[in-house]
Amino acid sequence: MKDLIRSLHPLERKVIPNLKNNITLKELAESSNLQEVEAMRALQWLENKKVLSSKQNITEEISLSDLGTKYLKKGLPERRLLEQIKDKPLQIREIKLDKGEINIALGELKKKAAIQLGKEISITDQGKKILDKESLEEKFLKSLPKILKDLSDEEKHAYEALKKRRDLIITKSLKERKIKLTDLGKDLCKEKIDLDLIESLTPQILKDNIWKSKDFRSYDVKINVPQIYGGRRQPYMESLTKMKHKLVQLGFEEMVGPLIETEFFNFDVLFQPQNHPARTMTDTYHLKKPVHGKLPDELVVNRVKLAHEEGGQTLSKGWGYKWSPEIAMQLMPRAHTTALSARTMAKGVKVPCRYFAIGRCYRPDVLDATHLIEFNQMEGFVADESISFKTLLGILKQFAIEVAGAEEVRFYPDYYPFTEPSVQISAKHPTLGWVELGGAGIFRPEVTNPLNIDVPVMAWGFGIDRLIMFKLGIKDIRYLFSQDLKWLRQPRMV
Amino acid sequence: MPTINVSIKDLNMLSAKEFTYEELESEAILLVKGEIEGVDGDDIIVDVKDSNRPDLWSTEGIARVLKSHYTDEKGIKEYKVEESDIYLHVDRTVDDVRPFIVAAVIEDVEITEDLLIQLIQIQEKVCLSFGRKRKRVALGIYDFDKIKSPLTYKAVKPESVKFIPLEYKVEMTLKEILETHPKGIEYKDLLKDFDKYPIVVDSKNNILSMPPIINSQYSGKVSEKTKNLFLEVTGTDLEDTKVALNILVAAIADRSGKIKSVTLDYGEEKLVTPDFTPKKMKVKFDDIENITGIKLTLKEMKDLLEGFCYNVKRAKDSLEVEYPSYRQDILHPIDVIEDILISYGYNKIEPHLPEIATVGDLDPLEVFCEDVRNLLPGFGAQEILNFTMTNIEHQFTKMNLEERDVIEIANPVSSKWSCIRSWIIPSLMEFFETNVSQEYPQQIYELGDVLILDESAETGCHTVKRLAWALADKESNFTKAKQVFDFVMKSIGLEYEIIEEDHPSFIRGRCARVKVGDRKVAYIGEIHPQVLENFNLGFPVCAFELNISEIFKLKK
């Protein structure tokens, strides 16, 4: 009991002296000199402490609206109309009623056969009777407010009729909470509870050393507290950053570049012929504005042109068509990060080197649970004398283990226009099973030779979204770019 | 990446080997860069990833590689072509519209259901992908018994001749076919720039077809009763048409029939097709060893290639290889080397991690961006990530701005994603709009890319990093935005100057422009209530947007 008393909140302490069985919340608030919400909180806490139980009854009260009050004073429109035609019939425009009231009055009276409509409106015998007597509805209006469940049959009839007319009466639910004390509560009420306890520890209390002489009120430490949200980094962004750091650890340098590319870097440098289906409107975005960009150094452009047309300085036959610089100048949102590799190689690289990029790419897909309209590719290349297919597989295996946490890898022949040999890599993930990780290969001589690179260059690109989705526990790929604040705010395991 | 329907029974018959599904899936199908995507009874659906090898886009083509790899029939499969007096005259009128035609005849063909299915598949896949939707090449197959040599390939006026197109009962002019026949409508664009259309006619003046649109009902219909076939391929490049013809002839002849040649009279030049003379390439031993990274003996190399439809001879320091005439993907010795590796088996190679000494590093601007991003969660701000694609309405109209020039997509999938953003605050406003039912205050930020048009730039625009921050709350105001902004700028270590400058997206008199030196780098302000209304927001919003790329340059 002593602990109980010590834990009482000031609000609780205010209501306890006024507690008795069957008191309502409203009464309690009044007698305790509290607002109803405060009394309510105190009651809930006391209920948690098993001091009392409370039950809510709902009663529906019918009262007059502003309009109802007005009509009660002036008379209902139908009565006022009848009064006006009592002695002689009138034309509609001669009737003095507010706009809107006329139709209601005519409707009501017509229903009761109290008037005859013609050129003029005249009162019937029935109408005269009605005029002499107070109607049920009028009687009911005068008697308000009333409790719905207490209505007599006659009153109910009037209530239903009035309810159909707009804005005359209001039906309000009244919530009434009644209290019942438990045995503990009864005992508590007998105790002396006006202990002088410290509520909040204030600078003043510290200064005045009051805490040395007074006790603190105990809190209910089990109580639920309102949730707060700390600001967080975006989870997908966070995962991408972690991947970047991993790649730096493996000796890779980051490449960056423009989101809008010339077809030259997106396709031509990568030896994709200009009539290739991948370059059509269905497979890649094109721009309406701006349309053309600029080509780099003429020397490089010419070497690329020759590689396409007849192989240039490589042993290649080339594609055997007339290469057009106008097509190469066209601009497009980057379709793959390989454009970045092309750009980086074109700038000139020092061998040996390792480069990577995690970059935004665009492809004309419809946004749904498995497709994004913009996505990130992880991609890179390694240029060194020692690059061969065997070492390419070695590098890929290292990635699979370090970046994707794979246990085992498998390689499949594959096709990319810019690499030969090409390989697809699958990794056995501890939980996901076999997952296709991405593709790789050695850049074709038609790609590297025009860029003046004379060592083999291995290129790789990984689809990282699936792994990140798994890590974040999401099934819908749109959550990588989540627009759901609730989801973003929720605590995530660190 | 065409997907091919293959009956395992049919494949086993053609490759003379009994493959189980498991053997195909785990090993054999890898030889053709295939992946089994689905199973339908005895049929498997194979994704052949090589978009440059139309010869593999049929059961016959796949079987040819497997047969060479797994049976004793090594090397290039030979196709005997019997010379004939069948003659096709190429009239110069086709030069402008569709200059090349090649043809072949196969007699005594046993036309089975399997073959018919494959013929349709080859025609469809080859014309679509390799043929660039019939633009580059188109294939026609006919009942040779209804054709009388010599034939003529010529271009004529669209209304000058009539014939009954396939699956029709009435004669139509070429013009009518383009306007009303389903295939005519589908492919009419291929002929839209020409005033004469190509046709093939025989000596009795029967029209065989109107390439690349449609065959005639009379001779262009092939059924299980047909015995002798006439094949033609038209196109814009002679080499492409020859490759396509050989693919088709080889596929049919792999089952049955006698191939007969057709003489094509191009005027000064005469050509006899089909021509199965193998193509040649030299591959240096050194290159093979350097690229594969594995040591192979001459015999091993020979075996690997002969098991992959090659004939191999040794030259001094290199292999002299012959490969089938229908392969047009081999441009460089490297393409032969890949075939050596595939024949060897990728998974038999022991991966080796090379020792390459390089130093890894992040891009300095990216590092700076990450540092800035990490400043904001301390204020309780939630980082968000948006697409850079959006639309004019969101970027400008809803932001109370006049439309401006931005990067516009020519072929948007949806009007919702039809341009690329030039500022980020609209993305944040849209995010608020999506989350009106969530608890307030809502404090969000994004540091990402926007694109700014600049005709003089290499790519017609600049990719610029911007930081945008916004707070939606009942107590959101200019002071709050400026406090956060000030903290960011002090953390970056740059002095700045505030100037009064109005902007239609912000409340008049509650918007500031920020200058560092003489560069304008940011806006701070309270978002205009009209903008809030446009985004259906019931709380005030304050925001700022800072040009991080510029700040990064200034800091340096």
Task: Give a nutshell description of this structure.
Chain A has 494 residues and is α+β, with helices and mostly antiparallel strands. Chain A has helices spanning 2-6, 10-15, 25-32, 36-48, 66-74, 77-85, 101-111, 125-132, 136-143, 153-164, 183-190, 203-207, 235-249, 263-268, 298-310, 325-329, 338-347, 389-402, 445-448, 465-472, 485-489; strands spanning 52-64, 115-117, 121-123, 146-147, 169-181, 197-198, 215-216, 253-254, 260-262, 287-289, 331-333, 353-362, 374-383, 408-413, 419-429, 433-443, 457-462. Chain A has three domains: 2-62 and 175-216, Winged helix-like DNA-binding domain superfamily/Winged helix DNA-binding domain (Arc Repressor Mutant, subunit A, Orthogonal Bundle), CATH 1.10.10.10; 64-162, Arc Repressor Mutant, subunit A, CATH 1.10.10; 237-489, BirA Bifunctional Protein, domain 2.
Characterise this structure:
The complex is a heterodimer of chains A (494) and B (556). Chain A is α+β, with helices and mostly antiparallel strands. Chain A folds into 3 domains: 103 residues, Orthogonal Bundle (Arc Repressor Mutant, subunit A); 99 residues, Arc Repressor Mutant, subunit A; 253 residues, Bira Bifunctional Protein, Domain 2 (BirA Bifunctional Protein, domain 2, 2-Layer Sandwich). Chain A is built from 21 helices and 17 strands. In chain A, strand 6, helix 12 and strand 7 form a beta-alpha-beta unit. The longest helix of chain A has 15 residues. Chain A is elongated. Chain A starts with a helix and ends in a 5-residue tail after the last helix. In chain A, 37% of the residues are buried. The model of chain A has no long low-confidence stretch (mean pLDDT 89). Chain B has 556 residues and is α+β, with helices and mostly antiparallel strands. Chain B folds into 4 domains: 68 residues, 2-Layer Sandwich (Phenylalanyl-tRNA Synthetase, Chain B, domain 1), CATH 3.30.56.10; 193 residues, 3-Layer(bba) Sandwich (Phenylalanyl-tRNA Synthetase, Chain B, domain 3); 67 residues, Phenylalanyl-tRNA Synthetase, Chain B, domain 1; 192 residues, Bira Bifunctional Protein, Domain 2 (BirA Bifunctional Protein, domain 2, 2-Layer Sandwich). Chain B contains 16 helices and 30 strands. In chain B, a hairpin with a 3-residue loop joins strand 12 and strand 13. The model of chain B has no long low-confidence stretch (mean pLDDT 95). Chains A and B meet through helix 13, strand 8, strand 9, strand 10 and strand 12 of A and helix 8, helix 10, helix 11, strand 21 and strand 23 of B.
